[in-house]
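Lab manual, section 2.4: Encoding a predicted structure.

Procedure: take the sequence of the chain (464 residues), apply the prediction step described in section 2.3, and record the output as structure tokens. A sample record is shown.
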Amino acid sequence: MNSVAEPVSAELLRRFDVSGPRYTSYPTADRFVEAFTADDYAQALSHRRSGAAAMALPLSLYVHIPFCESLCYYCACNKIITKHHDRATSYLRYLSREVDLHTECIGLGQTISQLHLGGGSPTFLSDDELRELMGMLRRSFTFAPGGEYSIEVDPRTIDPSRLDTLAQLGFNRLSFGVQDFDPAVQKAVHRIQPAEQVFSLVAAARAKGFESVNVDLIYGLPQQSPESFDRTLAQVVELRPDRIALYAYAHLPERFKPQRRINTVELPSGASKVSMLSRSLAAFMGAGYVYVGMDHFALPEDALAVAKRQGRLHRNFQGYSTQPDCDLIALGVSSIGRIGATYSQNAKTLEEYYDFLDQGRFPVIKGLALTRDDLVRRAVIMALMCQGHLQFETIDIAYLVEFKSYFAKELLALQNLAEQGLVTVDESGIQVTATGWFFVRAVAMVFDVHLQTDRTRARFSKIL
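Recorded output:
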């Protein structure tokens, strides 16, 4: 497993083992304020409808299904643990109300080019409930041919016959939550799923013609070691999914109650986590995967790898995407969306979510209207995160600023990263180096005006 040369040194990985945002948005969600209300969100939708250019662009759609049958101890998602499947009946009824509120604002038949069902476990829903949900969405929106329609799959809740249903409903991309194949690790995090089960499902998905299969992995879990994770890496290489998402576990029991069930003595050391990341990079890139960018790997022919080569990567609240930068309507409890120059987040509890909709109001509890400075910095950060370079002149023209004076402090701070070989800066722009691409979050953080104190930064996971 370690015969492939490491693409980046362990010493450099240790140096940048710091906390920071993932930049699925800028400003990041911790900056959202309660002063942004449901009325502000409705106004943003109205502005979209009145703008011909905005209405002509496809939408992205995210639907949050919060239910899970059992608790995974590492989980930091908004979820509801229940074996009472009848709770989904009420939830779908309220989702329908939320959809109706949107179509009242923007009209029926808006084009959707990207759909993602996340959770929780979307496959908690029965086949009939999934049919009901997709029927609801298709009656309200127009699904573009060739779009990306994905769903997160808990392998413990699905079999090959259910894959048939997902294909019939129009899903063309699947994301399997694996985390680790090691039985001891699975027991420690309360998520038992034999490797054979995942291999069987991935084989069935390929036979049924799904365009892309993603596997999620987590390193830094209890009972993991570099040697045990090597075995999981070897199995994933053998499985050969189209995409791999590799996340570092962030142990924050004070914020996420389920993590209090984890025995901290069983957590790997920081040095072991760095070793696991280093070995993962070597294993996946040695097996022919393209390192798309923070956490993401893809086979060379996958659309995500192609988009990276062609400079067409984008980011949204689900991570890297091949879809052009577009408005995102987020449905369901706790979901986060983007309309125009605003971000919004729905109520985080079912009771509050239902109460808003009973009143005929959007269930938005907080959000943000971006300032001019936010928009300029977002453009810079997303260019670095997605393309790995930017031209000063492009920002100057688009935002009527003089980049070198506007970002004089930031350019000075970049010199330290340039000395470490992560970026090059010349008279025309900034280029992230091949080594720097592994630390692109650290480069983006230089332009984040909100990252001023350690207190703020501590809210985030490690950047590696």
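Check your result against the sample. The radius of gyration is 22 Å.
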